[in-house]
């Protein structure tokens, strides 16, 4: 009888393992709710006290003292008391817990310990936020949701583009009305051009003028020429286009002044000029000088013109989206000044810590560390900032070149003409000075 029972138990275990594996592969959400969540929740509850003590998240209770005649009688030795944590609540991607802070504690200490919590609970990542004074929300994601990102949806809005999916499963949206200018950093083959193609695909159907500056000879943005109101493929052309845009910006300024309004969005529909999005692929090409006098002068002109557009453009419907492999201060002081104006940041995998620091360091140090941990296999994965000042890992939808070209081709007829740009690229050399 014994061997039969043993064989039966073995068969049952093997069957459970096979079924468990099948469920994990084909129904990861069910697997998470049935097996992953109970195991992780137990781990959280059982390790909480130890983790808090080891990471200085617990406070020590004063031992009770008493007087016995003239003698002070000490009680028990110092006892660390862990902050109270709620029972882990499951969601589709992981679990959340609320922690009630002890008096004197701040969320910053918990943020520093996020890595230790990740390892202790064997999850992909733990994010620490503070939704309310005195409370900390720990959000643990079980596996990397960006490995197999689903499709997100977002309402269609003018100057808003659905780029991809964020780590929490929400839509990754670049809304230029909320954040007017963006910096996209990333090493070669990290996903910058794919992201720009996605942005162009999303903006192409909208009544928006797209202007391209691609000093890599127009290799990337040249694919969308039909839908671009202008395309500069070298620095001389970039100076011409940027100069024309600054002239257009000044005209918009005087239109607003005459109408007594502070932005083009307050102008009546009939008078409102079309919004312009300037896309720059490889910013370094505009700033690096070949040492010649003309080269230096052009680089300085580009720097000044871009800065003017960034400083004054937001209210006048002029938006900048600037991409580059390196955005270090070695490109000149103009880059640092420009960066300060580019409120939206997207940082893909980078080759040097300086670029991650430049892209995200002035906003959030934790985001810099996360951006540096993006691997070469994680193409299209980036750390992006949100309109609320927070940040998240995200992945762009993979938009193939054919798809992007086909979409833009469908909207060529709606490409707005910008009067100041017409002829700017054909003007004889020297007219832009
Ligand atoms: N979101 C994504 N998901 C999956 N693969 C992606 C994604 N984004 C980009 N890739 C892949 O990564 C590769 C490089 O992408 P891309 O050309 O956009 O990089 P890049 O940063 O612009 O490089 P370079 O600076 O050399 O132009 C492409 O083959 C593309 O298919």
Summarize the structure.
This is FtsK/SpoIIIE domain-containing protein. ATP binds at residues 186-193. This protein has twelve helices and 19 strands.
How does this model look, in words?
Keywords: ATP-binding, Nucleotide-binding. It holds the Pfam family FtsK_SpoIIIE. This is FtsK/SpoIIIE domain-containing protein. InterPro entries: AAA+_ATPase, FtsK/SpoIIIE/SftA, FtsK_dom, P-loop_NTPase. The radius of gyration is 28 Å and the shape is globular. The strands form four sheets. A ten-stranded mixed β-sheet has the order 11-10-19-18-17-12-16-15-13-14. Strands 5, 6, 7, 8 and 9 form a five-stranded antiparallel β-sheet that branches. The protein folds into two domains: 120 residues, 2-Layer Sandwich (Threonyl-tRNA Synthetase, Chain A, domain 2), CATH 3.30.980; 255 residues, Rossmann fold (3-Layer(aba) Sandwich). The longest helix is centred in the N-terminal third of the chain and has 27 residues. The model has no long low-confidence stretch (mean pLDDT 87). By secondary structure, it is of the alpha/beta class. The chain is built from twelve helices and 19 strands. Adenosine-5'-triphosphate binds next to helix 5 and strand 19.
């Amino acid at each position: 009888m014994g061997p039969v029972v043993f064989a039966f138990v073995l068969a049952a275990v093997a069957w459970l393992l096979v079924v468990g594996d099948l469920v994990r592969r084909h129904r990861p959400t069910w697997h998470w709710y049935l097996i992953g969540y109970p195991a992780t929740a137990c781990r959280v509850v059982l390790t909480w006290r130890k983790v808090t003590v080891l990471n200085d998240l617990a406070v020590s209770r004063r031992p009770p003292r008493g007087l016995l005649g003239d003698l002070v009688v000490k009680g028990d030795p110092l006892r660390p008391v862990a902050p109270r944590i709620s029972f882990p609540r499951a969601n589709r991607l992981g679990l959340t817990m609320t922690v009630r802070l002890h008096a004197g504690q701040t969320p910053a200490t918990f943020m520093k310990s996020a890595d230790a919590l990740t390892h202790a609970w064997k999850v992909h990542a733990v994010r620490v936020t503070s939704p309310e004074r005195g409370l900390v929300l720990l959000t643990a994601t079980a596996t990397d949701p960006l490995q197999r990102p689903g499709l997100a949806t977002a309402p269609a809005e003018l100057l808003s583009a659905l780029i991809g999916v964020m780590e929490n499963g929400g839509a990754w949206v670049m809304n230029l009305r909320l954040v007017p200018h963006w910096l996209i950093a990333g090493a070669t083959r990290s996903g910058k051009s794919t992201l720009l193609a996605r942005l162009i695909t999303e903006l192409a159907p909208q009544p928006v003028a797209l202007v391209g500056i691609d000093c890599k000879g127009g290799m990337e943005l040249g694919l969308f020429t039909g839908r671009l109101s202008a395309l500069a493929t070298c620095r001389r052309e970039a100076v011409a286009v940027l100069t024309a845009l600054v002239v257009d910006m000044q005209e918009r300024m005087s239109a607003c002044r005459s109408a007594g309004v502070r932005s083009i969005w307050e102008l009546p529909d009939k008078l409102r000029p079309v919004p312009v999005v300037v896309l720059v692929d490889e910013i370094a090409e505009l700033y690096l000088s070949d040492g010649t006098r003309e080269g230096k002068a052009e680089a300085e002109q580009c720097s000044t013109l871009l800065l003017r557009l960034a400083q004054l453009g937001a209210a006048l419907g002029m938006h900048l989206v600037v991409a580059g492999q390196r955005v270090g201060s070695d490109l000149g002081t103009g880059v640092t000044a420009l960066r300060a104006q580019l409120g939206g940041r997207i940082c893909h995998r980078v080759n040097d810590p300086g670029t991650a620091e430049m892209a995200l360091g002035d906003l959030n140090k934790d985001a810099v560390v996360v951006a540096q941990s993006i691997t070469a296999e994680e193409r299209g994965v980036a750390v992006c900032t949100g309109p609320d000042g927070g940040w998240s890992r995200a992945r762009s939808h993979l938009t193939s070149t054919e798809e992007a070209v086909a979409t833009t081709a469908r909207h060529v007829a709606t490409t707005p003409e910008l009067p100041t740009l017409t002829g700017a690229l054909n003007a004889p050399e020297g007219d832009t000075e």
